[in-house]
Write a structure and sequence with these properties.
The complex is a heterodimer of chains A (112) and B (114). Chain A has 112 residues and is mainly beta. Chain A has no helices and eleven strands. The chains are: A mainly beta (112), B mainly beta (114).
Chain lengths: 112, 114
């Protein structure tokens, strides 16, 4: 149980375009989902906390207009990277919480 | 949340026990010790957590010192698939519907050698 999926697992996009990443809790309902970013050889950094039906709470230094988060249901949250640039290339990981935080497999974003 | 200190890397022979230490000297009374691991290019995986008593599950054992200022994660029979970065995190207990955060440090890279 407690499986979290992400789609896509990897994506390549051109600079200036937008990319949407989906995070789903497959076998449980999650009132809270989290989005993390991980650069090579670095640890996970929390970007934002998302509650179903309300606006996401962003960590300091994370641009909310650039990283749009939608948490429309108890099993789905989406992260849209708008006007992506090469420096946005990273490993994006979501997690969903019920009793503990369960993590998705991650999405590798490469912006060319 | 309290800060943790872990060695950057450790080696272990396959089949032997892996003992991963963590210092959390500023932990407060209502904070738990959590362990996650991250295999290369995957999302973190929950391992175990505890408050003050030792805990054991199918993956590992967690030994917390009496003063709660440090803990040790034990993988009793390490396999090659246990090679990963192990994160020790302290935080308050999730309370249904409440938000909480996990603050990841640099963790310990455990390499299990054949």
């Amino acid at each position: 149980g407690a499986v979290v999926s992400q789609h896509p697992s990897w994506v390549i996009c051109k600079s200036g375009t937008s990319v949407k990443i989906e995070c789903r809790s497959l076998d449980f309902q999650a009132t809270t989902m989290f989005w993390y970013r991980q650069f090579p050889k670095q640890s996970l950094m929390l970007m934002a906390t998302s509650n179903e039906g309300s606006k996401a709470t962003y960590e300091q230094g994370v641009e909310k207009d650039k990283f749009l988060i939608n948490h429309a249901s108890l099993t789905l949250s989406t992260l849209t990277v708008t006007s992506a640039h090469p420096e946005d290339s990273s490993f994006y990981i979501c997690s969903a919480s019920i009793d503990e935080q369960y993590f998705g497999p991650g999405t590798r974003l490469t912006v060319t | 949340d309290a800060k943790t200190t872990q060695p950057p890397s450790m080696d272990c022979a396959e089949g032997r026990a892996a003992n991963l230490p963590c210092n959390h000297s500023t932990i407060s009374g209502n904070e738990y010790v959590y362990w996650y691991r991250q295999i290369h290019s995957q999302g973190p995986q929950y391992i175990i957590h505890g408050l003050k008593n030792n805990e054991t599950n199918e993956m590992a054992s967690l030994i917390i010192t009496e003063d709660r200022k440090s803990s040790t994660l034990i993988l009793p029979h390490a396999t090659l698939r246990d090679t990963a970065v192990y994160y020790c995190i302290v935080r308050g207990l999730f309370s249904g519907g409440s938000n909480y955060k996990l603050t990841f440090g640099k963790g310990t890279l455990l390499t299990v050698n054949p």
